[in-house]
Amino acid sequence: MAQVADRYVGAEVRRKEDPELITGEARYTDDISVPGMLCMHVVRSPFAHARVTSIDVSKALAMEGVFAAFSGQDLAGDWAGPMLMAWPVTEDINNPPHWPLTKDTARYQGDGVAVVVAESRAVAADAAEAVEVDYEPLDAVVDMEAALKEGTPLVHAEIGTNKCFTWTLTNGDIDAVFARAPVKVKERYRIQRQIPNAIEPRSVLADPTPSTGEFTLWTSSQIPHIVKVGMAITTGIPESKLRIIAPRVGGGFGSKLQVYPEEALALALAKRLRRPIKWTETRSENYLATHHGRDQIQEIELAADGNGKILGYRDRILVNMGAYLMIITPGTPLLGAFVFCGPYGGEAYHIEFTGVFTTTVPTDAYRGAGRPEAAYAMERSIDALARQVGRDPVEIRRMNFIPAFTEPTPSPGGLTLDSGNYESTLDRALELVGYEQLRKEQQARRDSGDIKQLGIGFSTYLEMCGLAPSRVLSSLRYAAGGWDAASIRVLPTGKVTMAIGTTPHGQSHETTFAQIAADDLGVPFEDIEVVFGDTELAPWGMDTYGSRSLAVGGVAVHRAAQKIVEKARKIAAHELEVSEEDLDYEDGKFMVKGAPDKAKTIPELAFSAWTAHDLPDGIEPGLNALAVYDPQNFVFPYGAHICAVEVDTETGGVDVLRYVAVDDVGTIINPQIVDGQVVGGVIQGIAEALFEEATYDENGQLLTSSMTNYLVPAAPDVPEVIVGRHVTPSTTNELGVKGVGETGTIASPPAVVNAVVDALSHLGVTDIERPMTPERVWRTIRQAKGGASK
Amino acid sequence: MRQISVTVNGTRHEADVEPRQLLVYFLREQLGLTGTNVGCDTTSCGSCTVLVEGKSVKSCTMLAVQADGREITTIEGMARNGELHPLQKAFHEHHGLQCGYCTPGMIMAADSLIRESRNLTEESVRFGLEGNLCRCTGYQNIVKAVLAAAEETRSADAAAPAK
C-alpha cells in the first residue's frame, strides 16, 4: 500500500467489484432461486386506452402447472394504498391513484390488468395467453399539445382534464427585463422520449415466512430503502417485517429509481399463496413496463443586450407524464428547473412547467433527469443568440460566463453555486480538440463544396446534483429527505466492515468508498469490505440517483471514519497514558508527540475496544460509528464539451469525428472510474442526439417495441471520447467532491446537435429535430436548399 | 422431453429438456450456471453469448436440443486452475465493466474474436463486438481491454514452444 504517496484517494485503484463480475459469480436478482419458488407473469393491456369489461381466468387456472390467476378486481382488496408518488410538486396537483393492477381501465399499452402464477416462467407465459380479457377500446391521447385542448379524450375522466400541474419559478422582474432588452431569441425544442435500457431487465423475488409474517424482497432496484417504505404503504405489510435486497444490479440509469407494481404484486401474491414468487421482465416487456424518460416540448426565450450579454431567461415547457404519476414523475423536470441558465449570468429568470397526462408509459428519471433537458435548452438557445448578434459560439459563451469563483456565488436560477471556473474548462477543451485547425478544415470543405461538411458544436453546461439538502427538498414538496449514511465497524482483528446507504449498480461505490475510508483509517484498501443494498445489513440510506452517492454518501463515509478516529484517540490516550492533545494521528497511527515510537494503531485499538479490558471511563466497547450526513447545499459540476462532426450532405449521415469532454466534478477519488462514468454518459447522450427515440403511433401503440427498432448503439456506432479532467473542489462538503454519474448525458446532446447545425449553417440550417437520423438530416438539407422535403 | 448430452466447461451432463427450452435457460436454470445473462428477447444484446465448439453463439437463440453432443464454454469456464483468463484480467485492469451485466457475454464474444482474427485494431474490435451491447461504458474501455488481451494472447502464443 505504500505507493501513491501513501494515499488511495486520487489513485487509479482497480475495482473491488470486478472479480465476481468477470467470473460470472455475481448474483443479480434473476440468478437467485429459493425452494418452492413460483413464477409470475403479468397480463398487460394491448390497448393504449380501454375499459376492461370482463376478465376470465378459468382457462388459465385449468392448465397444468398453474397455481393462481387474478384480475385487478380480484386483488383490489389486497392494497393498503396506491403506488407511492413522492413528489406532489404543487398543492393542487392532479394525482389519480395508480394501482399495481388496474381495476377497470387500461391507460397505456402495457398497463397490467391481470396476473398469473405458475410453476415455471414458460408455463406462466402460456397461462397468461389463456387469460381472456374483454376490452372496450377508448380513444388514445398521445400528443401533449392536443391533450390540453378542449374536447380531447381524458386519460383520467374523474379529474376532468389532462393537465397534471403547472409549476413556476421566478427570480427578478422578468417582464421588465424582456420589455427593455434590445435582443430577444425564441426557440422551440422537442426533447424526445427515451427508453433507459439498463442491460439487466428488472427482476423481483418475494420470499415469505408465513409463520412470522416476514418477507424478503430481492429486486433489481437503485432504491431498496425507498422501496421498503413504498411497499409498506402499498401492501400494508409492516415495514418492520420487510427486508429489501438489491443484490448486484445491472445498470439503472434512473429506470430502477422506482417503486414498481411488480414489486407490490410479488409481495401480495407471496402473502396470499405463502410461496416465494419470482418475476423477471423480458426486454420487450421492459419497454412497456419500466418507465421512460425525457419527453418535453420547450419554448425558450432569451433576452440580451445588443452585444449578446444575456439579461433574462423565460421558458415554458410541457412535460409528458404518461398515464400515471410514479415515484417522482412530476418532480423530474424540477431537477433541471434551476439550471436552465447554465453557467451564465443574468438578471431575471422564469420557468413554467406544465405536466400533461397521455395514454403512454409513465415517464420518470432517466440519467440526468431534468438537467439534460435544461442544458439542451440553454446550449442550443445560446447558439441561436450567437447567430442573432453575429458572434462565434465560443465568444458568446465567454462573455456570458459567471466569472471564476471559489466562494459560494449566486446564479440567476436562484441557487448558490459551490465553485466554478467555467472559462478554464472551455480553454482546455479548445486546446484538446484543436479548434483552430478544425475551423480551417471546415472552411476548406465549405470552399471546395465537399459533400462531407464539417461542424463544431459546443456545450458548456452547468448541472446541480448531490441530492440533496432535506430542507430544500421539503420546500420543493418532495416527500423524503436527502441525507445519507455510513456505518463503519473496525472488527477485533483490524479488518473493516462498512455499510453504506447508497446502492450501487455500476458506479463503483465499493472501490471509491473504500479508498476514502482506507485513507482516513490508515488500513489497507483490501481490508475493507463494503456492504450495501440490503435494508437489514445497511439499514440507513436514501439510495442512488441524481449523482448523489459520493457527494452525500461518500461524505457520510468520511464522517463515520472521523468518528472512529476520535473514539480511537480516546482509547489510545488512555493506553499511552497521555492526554488526547499529546497525540499526533497519521495513517492509522496515534503517536505521542515527541516520542513517535510510543504509538497505537487503529487495529490495535479496535482489539482493545473489543476486549474492553481497559477502556477509559465512559467509553462504550467496540470501535463502531454511524454517520448520517445531510448536505447544506447541492454540488454543481460543470464543463465544456466540444463535438466535431462530419455530415454527409447527400445521405444525411452524421459521423462524430472528435469528441472532447472536459468536466469538473470536484475532487477526484479514482480517476479511472471518473473517466469511465464520463465516457459512458457521453456515449449515452450522443445516442440520444443521433439514434434513440421511443415513438408511439396515434393509437398509442409503441412502435419502438423491442431492441431491434429502438437503437441502443453498439461499439462501431460511437466514437472514442477524449477526456480532460479539471478540478475546482466543491465548497459544499469537506471532501470537495461533486458528482459525475450524469454529466455525460447532460452535456453531450446539445454539443452534437450544435455541431450538425454548424456543419449545415452555410445552407441556412438553424435546427434539426432529434434524434438526428440520416432521414431527418437529409430532409433538413433538402428543405434548406429549397427542394421538396418529401 | 428430449434427452441431451452436452459438455459444459469440461463436464459432461445428461439431461432431459423440453424441446422448446432455450440453451441459455438450460444453462441458467438446469445447470445453475447463472453467469450467462439474458438482456433481451430479440438476439440484440449479446449478454447471453457462450462458446459452442469454440465459437461465440447467442445462447438465447439456440435451443438446448441443438446443443446435444456439443461442447460449450460459459464465463464460469474461462478461468483455469484459479488463474483468470487474459480477457478477464484485461477487463479488470482497463475498467472494461461497470455494472458487469453485459461482461460475461462481452468476454465470450471477444474470446471468439481474438481467436478468429489476426492483427485486431480498434476498428475491427468495435465491429467484431457489434452484437454485444453495453449501456455503461460507452465501449471505450472494452475496446482497450480486448486489444490488451489480444496482445497478451499473441505474446503468449509466440513464447510457447513449437509443437
Question: What structural keywords apply?
Answer:
heterodimer, A: 790 residues, 7-stranded mixed beta sheet, 5-stranded mixed beta sheet, 28% helix, disordered N terminus, B: 163 residues, alpha+beta, 5 strands, globular
The largest beta-sheet of chain A arranges its strands as: 3-5-1-12-9-10-11
Structural class of chain A: alpha+beta
Annotation field: number of helices of chain B: 5
Please report which band the strand proportion of chain A falls in: under 5%, 5-15%, 15-25%, 25-35%, 35-45% or over 45%. Answer: 15-25%
H/E series of chain B: EEHEEEHHHH
Which pair of protein chains has the largest interface, and what are the residue counts? A-B, 58 and 58 residues
Task: Give the radius of gyration of chain B.
Answer: 16 Å
- Tell the overall outline of chain B: globular
Helix content of chain A: 25-40%
Residue windows where pLDDT falls under 50 for at least 5 positions of chain A: 1-5
Strand content of chain B: 15-25%
Mean pLDDT of chain A: 97
Question: What summary fits the major beta sheet of chain A?
Answer: 7 strands, mixed
Instruction: Going across the biggest sheet of chain B, name each strand in turn.
Output: 2-1-5-3-4
**First-last Cα distance of chain A:** 66 Å
Arithmetic mean pLDDT of chain B: 96
Multimeric state of these chains? heterodimer
Shape of chain A: globular
Poorly predicted ranges of chain B: none
Number of strands of chain B: 5
Query: Which secondary-structure class do the elements of chain B indicate?
Result: alpha+beta
Would you write up a description of this structure?
The complex is a heterodimer of chains A (790) and B (163). With 790 residues, chain A is of the alpha+beta class. Chain A is built from 19 helices and 28 strands. In chain A, strand 27 (654-664), helix 17 (671-690) and strand 28 form a beta-alpha-beta unit. Chain A is globular. Chain B contains five helices and five strands, in the order E-E-H-E-E-E-H-H-H-H. Chain B is globular and about 45 Å long. Chain B starts with a strand and ends with a helix. At the A-B interface, helix 1 and helix 17 of A face helix 1, helix 2, helix 3, helix 4 and helix 5 of B.
